[in-house]
Amino acid sequence: MSYLLLLLATLAWSFVGVLVKTAATMVDSAIISFARFFFGVICLVIYLFIRDGKVQIRLGMKWIWIGAAGKAVNYVFENIALKIGYSYGNILVQPVQTVVLLLAASWLFKERIAPRGWAAAALCVLGVLVVGWNGTPVDELAQGSGLTTLLFTFAGIGAAVHVLSQRMLLKTMDNGNMNLSVFLVSTILVAAPVPVYSHGFIGPVSVWAWAALILLGVITGLSFFWFAEAIKKVPFMIVALVGNSMVFFSVLWAYLFFRDPITIYIIGGTLIFVAGFLLLNFPMRRKSATEQAKAQA
Questions:
Q1: Which residues on adjacent β-strands are paired with residue 201?
Q2: What's the confidence (pLDDT) of residue 293?
């Protein structure tokens, strides 16, 4: 069951770009951001009520609001970038998030980062730069992929802040009610500017667009819970392999559904930052065993 949950979470995340592009044919990015949280909260409430018979919402903790603000930033910038760019563009969020988390671990939590951690961060940055460049002349970057890369960078920073909040909140809250509290506050944050800045329905109303909005909410509400439950029992090496395969699925869906151009730069940059993920996540078993034997001796 844990492997199934891991696969479901990975596949769900890989479809985000395609679903946002589909929903964007009917509504603007502000509505998409709101819908992702709103329907996510509904899914979580239903799930938690079925599981526990009650829900616990806690709004008085600062990390709830910090995490909600980070996730709101993540979705707002990600949705804008997906609307104006290609549907695989959000593969850049994860490497940016990884680099920010490494920097936060070093600077904020004073944790020692091994050399391979910094090497992994360098590969992530290089991969993002290659994908963002995509062979485009420098004078055209600001009008095309350079702008979307910047937006995805902001989205990745917001995602990292959300992960940091989870690290702090899981000390005192369970995963389900923590996500419910954070996503509820995020819903309020992204809903506030909608009456002023949103254009609402900008295209024809369709069943596919509505289905995309609802599925985005389901992914928001349940995928993080699925992933958290999966990693409790699945070996971490498998988590790293399956979880990072999301970027390849995202590129595949982008080509199959929208025929987004997949260039050698996209493939190369993706391989580079995936190598960074694997370098960071794979345990150094032989080295650890050797060190342990020396210590015992």
A1: 27
A2: 37
Question: Is the residue at 5 inside a domain?
Answer: yes
CA 96 to chain CA mean position, Å: 10
Write the CB contacts of 140 (distance below 8 Å, at least 6 apart in sequence).
146
* Number of separate domains in the chain: 1
User: With 60 as the cut, is the pLDDT of residue 186 above it?
Assistant: yes
Model pLDDT, residue 152: 94
Residue type, 101: L
Answer left, alpha or beta for residue 45, where phi above 0 means left and psi between -120 and 50 means alpha. alpha
For residues 152 and 92, what is the distance between their CA atoms, to the nearest angstrom? 6
Give 282's DSSP letter.
Answer: S
Averaged pLDDT for residues 17-46: 96
Domain coverage including residue 130:
1-281
Query: Residues with Cβ < 8 Å from 277, sequence gap 6 or more?
Result: 94, 95, 98, 120, 124, 240, 244
Look up residue 101 and give its two tokens.
């988390």
CA 8 from chain centre, in angstroms, equals 15
Please answer whether residues 133 and 264 qualify as being in contact, where contact means their C-beta atoms are separated by less than 8 angstroms.
no
Q: What is the mean pLDDT of residues 62-88?
A: 95
Q: Rounded CA gap, 70 and 162, in Å?
A: 5
Is residue 36 assigned to a domain? yes
Cβ of 146: how many Cβ atoms within 10 Å?
16
Asked if 240 and 281 touch (Cβ cutoff 8 Å), the reply is yes
Give a yes or no: residue 118 inside a domain: yes
Q: Do the beta carbons of residue 101 and residue 160 sit within 8 Å?
A: yes
Q: What is the pLDDT of residue 292?
A: 40
